[in-house]
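Batch manifest line 274
LIGAND: D-glutamic acid
JOB: complex structure
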Amino acid sequence: MPDMTNTDKTIKIKKIGIFDSGIGGFSVLSELFKLMPKANYYYVSDDANAPYGPKSDEFITERSFYIAQELIHQGVELIVVACNTATAASIDLLREKFKDIPFVGVEPYLNAYYQIPEGLQKKMMVLTTESTGKSERFKRLKERLDPDSQIDHYSLKNLARLIEDYYHHPNQDVEFEKNIEDELSFLKSQHYAYAILGCTHYPLVRKQIEKILDLKAISPCSHVAQRVVDLTTKTDEIRVLGPGPSEFFNFLSTTNNLWIQKKRESLLGPFKGK
Ligand code: DGL
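JOB STATUS: finished
ARTIFACT:
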């Protein structure tokens, strides 16, 4: 029976930092809200520099260092790099530079193909940004988890940017649907059964991707959230009742560099229910 009198342990609210080039990390944050509703979240959207996809590793690493420093300044105890592109470019360097902070990254869930029983496997592809697709980290991951090259890979030039733009201009609904369809059209005739979503922006339009390409999409976001829980929660804390979850999360957009409180409920904006 855990010692419930240790108030330090029981009411300690965790502070979790999380960042992305823009709103893509919301697909991870929404999973974190479900698994760890009582934590305090500090989210940085580097929208002044989005998208990261076409940018160099050096630029993305410089941004990641700057953002990690800001999150540490806010007192976070763990940082989620909720961006495949930033994970590929900079997570090793972040871990080297900020030794006291655990970093959790996001990588395309390439384990998926080999988890399907032999004989039942169907055509699968992985979709990433250009920068992730070119990265050494992705190449190594692909060689390790897909040694027989069963999963085809495509880099999408515009999808993350389209999703980011739509979040900020949600009135352009019809145009948005059409742009997504155009971006994916070259994949339509190829009859894939599965698409691994290798960019955190993509799960925000998961249903559209599934509908346009008539397949099932696979996202790593719930696994990432589970990893954060494993790293931050001791087993005896799960039973603890402390203060209820805050209605808000802390949000910084690098376009104006101001921390504000946003309603958790408003997180997915125009993507809610999509
Ligand atoms: N959401 C990001 C990712 O997972 C970045 C997309 C971008 O900015 O190009 O790769």
